[in-house]
Amino acid sequence: MALVMGLSTTVVSAQPDSAFIKKIYNEALSNGKSYANLDYLCNKIGGRLSGSPQAQQAVEWAFKAMKESGADTVYLQECMVPHGVRGAKEVGKVICADPKDNRELPIAALGGSIATPAEGITANVIEVIGLKGLETLGKEKIKGKIVFFNEPMDPTFIETFNAYGKAVEQRWAGPSEAVKYGAIGVVTRSCTLTQDDYPHTGSMSYKDSLNRIPACCVSTNGANWLSAELKKDKDLKFFLKMNCAKLPDEKSYNVVGEIRGSEKKNEFIVVGGHLDSWDTGKGANDDGAGVVQSIEVIRIFKALGIQPKCTIRAVAFMNEENGGRGGKKYAELAKKNNEKHIAAIESDAGGFTPRGFSSDVTPAVKAKLKSWRPLFEPYGVYDFDRDGSGSDISPLKEQQVPCMELRPDSQRYFVYHHTAIDVFENVNKRELELGDAAMASLIWMIAKYGL
User: Fold this and answer.
1) 174 close to 206: Cβ distance less than 8 angstroms
2) Distance CA 47, CA 250 (A)
3) For residue 1, what pLDDT is reported?
4) Could you identify which of 19, 257, 280, 414 might form a hypothetical disulfide with 71, taking C-beta atoms 3.0 to 4.6 angstroms apart as the criterion?
5) pLDDT at 97
6) What is the pLDDT of residues 301-313, one digit of tens each?
């Protein structure tokens, strides 16, 4: 017999909540499918930059996976997305006074960057610490040079997303700010606390009123070496050649799977992750993990015979990395269709051990979420205090939807983020499944008691 859940405080289950949450965890850890799904997504399809053939393959795979999870309905939401291509491998080389000392550094084009001329560009390189460093040096010292942004992530932040949020400003806005001072190119230190040889790509932006200059990221080891060499020789030159291109927008899709509510079919709890990823790796932690966890919520509910009165909807969003158009389309359609969203939950912080849920909600809702903490603490999920939610669901906030995000342990996320080593082998099966269970449990509680 199905377990029917309402949206009131009436407990219709014969078992206390803690006992049923234990059932959810047992199902996720004993019979979980998320790890096998992630294996297929990463190793059979690979990196999934929006607009690419791999992104379309991922859409087709997600549709099938949601069907197999037991979703009552699976359908697509069409959206137009950017289509960028990397082209031939980028080259970034430091030109020293003695040619035998020349050194090629590990670089990657930033998402949205223009290419260099076919022959590349060569210019003196000047080190700048963050965006404020541009003003300190001034146009006279920067004009005609390649700016090397070298502000590191602050290691004193315990929550590494806070360190990322500060350091990423130079990647996002650096090219447009540097061109104001006459720069002809930008090299940006990768956003990671790890010292390695993997460049961490990511989006950057141009201002339409300004000239556009090519921009790349360099690995932290490469950045450290370049900084040390510039202290010895301020006249170092940098050769940069990139072959990236922006093609016309492509038609793509969000993939949506639902367990239809038994009574309130037009009231929704949505859970999701983003299907697209950068092309440098396989998009395992960012955000294949979030996609397979969201699909697993559907499977767990079906496996345990949970029949909610409202509709549970899992969404694999498209184009989070370089445009967010899938999330915007979802919110647009929700408004157009007059859908009532009880809550939205996103997983986009990696497949690591879950520690809690952040939220953008009213004080009353925050207090209710925190009152459930004792049910989650036996599973190491204790942090319900932080504010914040995922980018794909953020457009729903304009419709006053309570938005939340799964918060795993953050210490390893920026080791892999936007790199060639964001691969399936760097996701732990048990940690991933603990995240599946945490999300399914929170959704079960929201569906039962409301917010």
Assistant:
1) no
2) 17
3) 42
4) 257
5) 85
6) 999 999 999 999 9
CATH architecture of 89-244: 3-Layer(bba) Sandwich (3.50)
Vertex 160 angle, CA 392 and 386, to 5°: 60
Query: What's the rounded Cα separation, in Å, for the pair 148 and 279?
Result: 24
Rounded to the nearest 5 degrees, what angle is found at the Cα of 433, between the Cα atoms of 271 and 27?
A: 90
Amino acid at 351: G
Determine the pLDDT at residue 446.
Answer: 97
Sign of the Cα pseudo-torsion (101, 107, 112, 115, in order): positive
Which residue stretches of the chain have pLDDT < 50? 1-14
Q: Give the pLDDT score at 15.
A: 59
> What's the whole-model pTM score?
0.94
Distance separating alpha carbons of residues 38 and 254, to the nearest angstrom = 18
Query: 261 to each of 267, 311, 313, 329, how far by Cα in Å?
Result: 8, 4, 10, 23
CATH 1.10.260.40 fits 3-79+251-449, yes or no: no
Domain ranges in the chain? 3-79+251-449, 89-244
pLDDT in tens, 66-83: 999 999 999 999 999 999
